[in-house]
Each structure stands twice: as structure tokens, then as C-alpha cells.
Amino acid sequence: MRVVVAEDAMITREGLVRLLGEADVDVVGEAQDAATLLHKVTATRPDVAIVDIRMPPTHTDEGLVAARTIRATHPDVAVLILSSYIEPRYAMALLEEHPERVGYLLKDRVFDIAVLVDALRRLGEGESVVDPTIVTQLLGRRRAANPLDDLTAREREVLELLAEGLSNHAIAERIVVAERTVEAHVKQIFHKLDLTASPDSHRRVLAVLAYLRG
């Protein structure tokens, strides 16, 4: 796994680079601003770019803008957005534009190297990764004619775990059922959300987006 790390705070950036190195992840570039990030991605073509959402000069959404550019111009490069704050609108915006190979984690979670490496692996496999804290916050948002209303309690539970990026095997272990049972629930979720026309990998991401919107 080859990554570029973009973080303007030197201590945080060096900490991430050290943790990644200890986990045998190859850091092929570092950046402290969006312009340098885009240059490094073009020059090194990493598997994943790890990007702080707030970067110089305004420390607002430079990282998000850079992430959009990376996904649009280098579709084979995944992006993991990091944020110190829960900002679900940013996660939704990026996922809706580029629903695969995009992740959004709170910064304090990535210093658990197991969580970070797992997120990088899943992004490299074409999945999306959304911080469980954001999933929990968005869970309370309801709309009229919610497309999730037809799901059973178990199907909603499975969809919530899909939103956290878990595989069918991992979901089966979490809720203590057979993997084929999870597969059946996932098929029902796709059917009830009218996602029957797309390949399975893409439908998983679309189902997650439906869940977050719901």
C-alpha cells in the first residue's frame, strides 16, 4: 500500500507517517497544503491520499476541494478525508460525487493504527468508509417518505454496518449469524431500495448513501 499524507500540522503529519511506517505502509509523499498534495499525487500515483479537510490558506475546505480533484483526475487513487470535527455534510457531498474509493474518518480515530490500516485496505478494494460517529449522528435524521421505512429492524442493522464499511463476513461475525444470512439481508436491502440494476460493489455504496440520507 502506497500513500501520500496531507496534513498542515507537522506534529500530526509526522505522527501519522511514523504509525504508517510501523504498519509497513509505504508513505511516498507528504504535503502541508493542497497544491503540494496535488503535485505529490500526480508525481507518485499512490494507492490512497490521506487528506486533512482543513488546510492552508483559509483552513476551511481546501482538503475537500483537493480530494474532489484527485478523484476526478486520478480515479485509481482513493481518498481518505480526516476531520477534527463531525461535519457530515462534507462526507455526504464527496460520497455523492464519487461513491467509491472515498473515506471520511475523525482524526482521533486514525491514531488507532488497526482502524487506519483497515480503512486504507477497504478503500484500496474500492469500498467507501464512513466514521461510525457520523453514521450514528445521521441515523437520527428523518425525512417524509423515508425509503428506509420498508426495511425490517434486522435489515436496518445490516445496512448500518454496511455504512461503517464492514464486509458480509464481518457483519455475520458482529451479529452472530451465518454469512449466507447476511447475503440474503443485503439482497433484500438492494431490492427494497430499488438498487437492482447496478453491480453489487456499486450497489453497496448506493445503499450506504440512501442510509445516510435517510
Overall description:
Helix content is 53%, strand content 14%. It has a six-stranded parallel β-sheet, sandwiched between helices. α8 crosses α9. The chain folds into two domains: 128 residues, Rossmann fold (3-Layer(aba) Sandwich); 74 residues, Winged helix-like DNA-binding domain superfamily/Winged helix DNA-binding domain (Arc Repressor Mutant, subunit A, Orthogonal Bundle). The model has no long low-confidence stretch (mean pLDDT 84). It has 214 residues and is of the alpha/beta class. The chain is globular, with a radius of gyration of 17 Å.
Task: Indicate the CATH topology of the largest domain.
Answer: Rossmann fold
CATH architecture of the largest domain: 3-Layer(aba) Sandwich
CA-based shape: globular
Number of helices: 10
Number of domains: 2
Q: Averaged pLDDT, please?
A: 84
Write down the secondary-structure element order: EHEHEHEHEHEHHHHH
Structural class: alpha/beta
CATH class of the largest domain: Alpha Beta
CATH superfamily of the largest domain: Response regulator
In short, what is this structure?
This protein has helices at 10-22, 34-44, 62-73, 88-97, 113-124, 132-139, 153-163, 168-175, 179-192, 200-213; strands at 2-6, 26-31, 48-52, 78-83, 102-106, 129-130. By secondary structure, it is an alpha/beta fold. Helix 2 runs parallel beside helix 3, helix 7 packs across helix 10 and helix 8 (168-175) crosses helix 9 (179-192).
